[in-house]
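[audit] Reproducing an earlier prediction to check determinism. Same input, same settings, fresh worker. If the tokens differ from the archived copy the diff job will pick it up downstream; this log only records the rerun itself.
[audit] input (460 residues):
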Amino acid sequence: MLPLFLTAATVQTTAAAQPVPIRLHPENPRYFLFRGQPTVLISSAEHYGAVLNGAFDYVPYLKELHTKGLNLTRTFSGAYREVPGVFNIPNNTLAPTPEDFIAPWPRSSTPGAADGGNKFDLNQWNEAYFRRLKDFCKQAGAQRVIVEVVLFCPFYEDSLWDVSPMNARNNINGIGTMPRNEVYTLQNREMRALHEKLTRKIVEELRDFDNVYYEICNEPYFGGVTLDWQHHIADTITETEKAFPHKHLIAQNIANGSAKIENPHPAVSIFNFHYASPPDAVRINWNLNKPIAFDESGFKGTEDAVYRQQAWEFLLAGGSIFDHLDYSFTAAHPDGTAPVVEPTPGGGSATLRRQLKILKDFLTNFDFLKMAPDETTIQGGLPEGATAYCLAQPGTAYAIFVRGGNQASLALSLPAGRYRAEWLNPRTGAIEKTEETEGGSVTLASPPYIEDIALRVKRI
């Protein structure tokens, strides 16, 4: 029974007043609805340590994303951290010093953790961590940036498990006596309870944020993470949010590259892939009618071009999220001005972020909710060795990206009508050629270009 002073109408009004979190768009659930606008998520963002690394100033970081028109960041919960030098990442934001590491659990007064600090007490919450997590989400929301909260991550090597608060050597609770490849299973009752408790706490703390969704586990195909454990975490999120007025989306990381998704968990709405070039993951999972994400890029050198091209190809193949892992963000350079040099396992720069904004603006210039991948419009005319992707609303609008060569004469098959064609430079955003044409079998010759070019065709 409701208290006498709290009527059912009051409860309904309060629930309605709370912001609705980012959700699948009701007209096309392969894309998103955020604050009333159809949304595609595109970013070039730091290496997931913005919350757990106290030395990282996330305010200029988030402002830089917003300034460049980008709208997504991933952040790890602190159940996993890295150590300096791992994976050849200099100034890694996910590898804080022991003094700067802010975990969900507080340090105790007992010395002896592997990183030289005191051990953690897994029976207590570190309120400083949750204040920081919520402020990060608040600041991100002010910049219209969506936060993908990554709850867990496998331990790729012993050095990473060695410093985890969940390792028994680093806590006073005796939890975590198993090897690293047995942490994320349902076999150990105490570890499972710890995961459930952390999941519930984070979900409860972030219940009122409209710019948050959850990823169960980063790259669960490494380190012994079991599928039933992943499903259990999804169930824990769902159960925790049962009484919430609004629910948050849940993402599952499926594979590196591509894989056919079979029997997806009903609570999972976003399917994440890493290093998903070429974008086969979109094509083979199109029937799911859900967002397919290129959730992490890298390992293709430090130059901008390859990651710009991956983004264009993936999104014009029908993907709805592209998140580049940008190593130019460091604790010393939270505005993204750190130079990225070999052997860093990826790229990142202000130039690339500007180029990704060009892509985002290009897509939002279309009614992309009505578009789908098209393999019939382009009949030929590509330079030797070049590839092309087309997103189309047949007879109305066509978004085309050509990678490779230096000039194309695209043979297109268009329904009857009159069209305006604009060739866009993906590096600068400049419109380099415009023409009008009738439908039918037409040939559109591009201007000369370097590396790649985009074509926008709209019925007039």
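[audit] rerun output stored. Observation attached for the diff report: The first strand starts at residue 23 and ends at 24.
[audit] end
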